[in-house]
Write a structure and sequence with these properties.
Elements: H1 3-27, E1 30-36, E2 39-40, E3 45-53, E4 57-60, E5 66-71, E6 78-79, E7 84-88, H2 91-126, H3 132-165, E8 167-169, E9 174-176, E10 186-187, E11 195-198, E12 203-210, H4 214-221, E13 232-235, E14 247-251, E15 261-268, E16 280-286, E17 293-297, E18 302-304, E19 307-319, E20 327-344, E21 347-352, E22 359-363, E23 373-376, H5 380-397
Parallel strand pairs: 1-23
Antiparallel strand pairs: 1-22, 2-17, 3-12, 3-16, 4-11, 5-7, 5-10, 6-9, 7-8, 9-11, 12-15, 13-16, 14-15, 17-21, 18-19, 19-20, 20-21, 20-23
Length: 398
């Protein structure tokens, strides 16, 4: 190959290399969508895992021993205070009561006789018609008769109490569970559990809050903060919203030193008895802070080793490659560390690191690094409106 051909080949190769160098520069411009940061009022719910609890619940236990002879209720039903539930064989208790009553009558008869003797001997003693010892014995017999009456009366009370205990009634209005004993079973004092009854309207709901939130809930309980109609609501296990709202009943007396949490109990109306003790649910506490917040699409936030960043769009100028004396406007991405707040479905509250009016990248962040040249794929307000619409939908869903 002569020198002329070699020279031509070198010129062609140089031109090809120059063309290939320009292509990557064109592809370095990353198309993105931008969102203009602004402040706005945010409506959302803080959510806490919770469980329903009965405000009153007792185990029904026998006070006397015997065989179950009656069950006058339907398991799982709502019962009224004083309603008869169980009956323990009353025959022995009735016999003991009748015997005690008879003994009381005998004791009263003896008291009457002793009283008459004492009165008679007291009169005769005034005329020295009887020996002094006879009067003293009559007075002692009278005192013994009075004590016998008192003892007989106490025996009647005891047997009457046992007879009363043989009938077990509902201590309050509530729902009774599945019976632990059946007709004919022997029950004993201190060991047997007949059933459990719990109140059902209203129903309590327990959940834990952080000690940092304690003052906020104390203010709500003391009505120092204006409460909205939907301040406390719950979501049931099937995902549906319970139709009634609740209120704070109790804030526990102490903070758990190991977890830094404290228990809060709400009460909810339960007229249809649809809430049962032990039910898992989610408590929603309506946000009452009306201070405008910066809300941006959550997809704009990048997490790196536990820290959070966004990419700001900044307008600048760059020199032309063909003529370094000339410049042209470009847009570059700058990484900015932020302080994230609460996530609200597709959006997130930003507590610091950016300010209203900043433009941030919401689409295409995976291809960016600090200094990347970017181009807006659509108007910045377009992404902003989309984010706003998503936030409104989020608030409705919550």
């Amino acid at each position: 190959m002569n020198r002329k051909n070699i020279l031509v080949l070198l010129i062609v190769c140089a031109a090809f290399i120059r063309c290939t160098d320009k292509k990557p520069q064109q592809s370095n411009v990353v198309p993105v969508n931008l969102y203009t940061v602004k402040t706005q009022k945010v409506f959302y719910y803080d959510k806490y895992p919770a469980n329903t609890v009965a405000l009153s619940q007792v185990d029904l236990r026998p006070e006397v021993q015997g065989y179950i002879t009656a069950m006058d209720f339907k398991e799982g039903d709502h019962v009224k205070k004083g309603q008869k539930l169980y009956e323990i064989d009353q025959r022995l208790f009735q016999q003991a009561y009748d015997q005690a009553k008879a003994n009381l009558d005998v004791a009263k008869g003896n008291l009457t006789e002793a009283q008459q003797d004492a009165d008679r001997y007291t009169y005769l003693n005034k005329t020295d018609a009887i020996a002094k010892q006879t009067l003293d014995h009559a007075i002692i017999t009278l005192d013994n008769a009075k004590n016998s009456v008192k003892a007989a009366e106490e025996a009647v009370k005891t047997t009457e109490t046992n007879l009363t205990y043989s009938t077990i009634s509902a201590p309050f209005d509530g729902t009774i569970g599945i019976s632990q004993v059946r007709l004919g079973n022997m029950v004993t004092v201190g060991t047997s559990v007949l059933n459990t009854i719990s109140t059902d309207d209203p129903m309590g709901v327990d959940f834990l809050i952080s000690e940092k939130q304690l003052q906020h809930f104390e203010d709500i309980k003391d009505n120092n903060q204006q409460a909205v109609d939907s301040l406390f609501t719950i979501v049931t296990p099937d995902g549906s919203l319970y139709p009634y709202t609740g209120k704070i009943l109790i804030i526990d007396r102490a903070v758990n030193t190991q977890t830094g949490t404290i228990d809060v109990r709400l009460t909810f109306p339960n007229p249809k008895y649809s809430l049962r003790p032990g039910l898992s649910c989610v408590v929603r506490v309506h946000n009452q802070d009306t201070t405008p917040e910066m809300v941006v699409p959550n997809k704009a936030v990048v997490e790196l080793m536990g820290e959070y960043f966004v990419y700001l769009a900044k307008d600048t100028v760059a020199r032309n490659q063909d003529d370094s004396t000339k410049t042209h406007p470009v847009m570059i991405a700058l990484q900015r560390k932020i302080q994230p707040g609460r996530i609200i479905d597709p959006n997130i509250i930003i507590k610091g690191g950016i300010k209203p009016g900043d433009r941030i990248v919401v689409d295409g962040v995976q291809s960016l690094h600090t200094g990347s040249v970017i181009s807006a794929g659509q108007k910045p307000d377009g992404a902003g409106k989309a984010a706003d619409h998503g936030k409104k939908d989020s608030a409705k869903k919550n």
